[in-house]
Amino acid sequence: MNIGTLKANAEGVHIGRITTLTFSATVALRAFESSNERAPKFDLMALSADRRSWVKIGALWEYSSNETGECFLSGQIDDPSLSAPIPVAMFQQNDGSFNVAWRRSKPKASLDGFGSESEGALPPLTATGDEPASDRSVDSAAATGDGLGESTAPAPKGKTRVSVDA
Fold first, then answer.
1. 90 pLDDT higher than 90
2. Which residues partner with 150 through β-bridges?
3. Which residues pair with 88 in a beta bridge?
4. Distances from the Cα of 144 to the Cαs of 138, 140, 141, in angstroms?
């Protein structure tokens, strides 16, 4: 789903507007200078409410599609007014502008043996994982201990009190 467009101004800075139902801001891309190959390509800046300064609300990394080889920017918009960061991807158009697309994260696949999330089912919890709980005998002496087993450390020496007559 497209939530905005950024176009280059006279100075070559990409500026535009990103709008969702709960977030609306004038944003710009600021090149991020770094020799680190893992650094973001751009900082995502938003115009402050008083329109006097820019505030960093995210960073964008450059990736390329495995299928088409097309380059795109990917990152998140984060602001205290949001309940969670908004994942976004920006795709450069033929005219040099960027379309901003919101990306919904995919739900994690359920693990084998745990059932579906709607069932809420969990596998039985057993000591060894392969026998029912009723088949295990419980050592009553071990049950009264702290569960850590016997110690090989020497017993602590008793402290002696010295009484002082006043």
1. yes
2. none
3. 75, 102
4. 11, 7, 5
CA–CA distance, 142 with 135 (Å, rounded to integer): 17
With beta carbons less than 8 A apart as the criterion, state whether 136 and 127 touch: yes
Q: 98 near 16, Cβ under 8 Å?
A: yes
How many Å apart are CA 7 and CA 14, to the nearest integer? Answer: 5
Residue 123 has a pLDDT of 72
Binned at pLDDT 50, 70 and 90, residue 122 comes out as confident
Q: What is the value of pTM for the model shown?
A: 0.62
Write out the E strands in 65-121.
Answer: 71-77, 86-92, 98-102
Name the band, by pLDDT with cuts 50, 70 and 90, for residue 117. low
Rounded to the nearest angstrom, the gap between the alpha carbon of residue 48 and the centroid of all alpha carbons in its chain is 26
The yes-or-no verdict on residue 148 having pLDDT over 90 is no
Nearest to 14 by CA among 69, 73, 63: 73
Domain boundaries, the chain: 1-100
What is the C-alpha separation between 62 and 73, in angstroms, rounded? Answer: 5
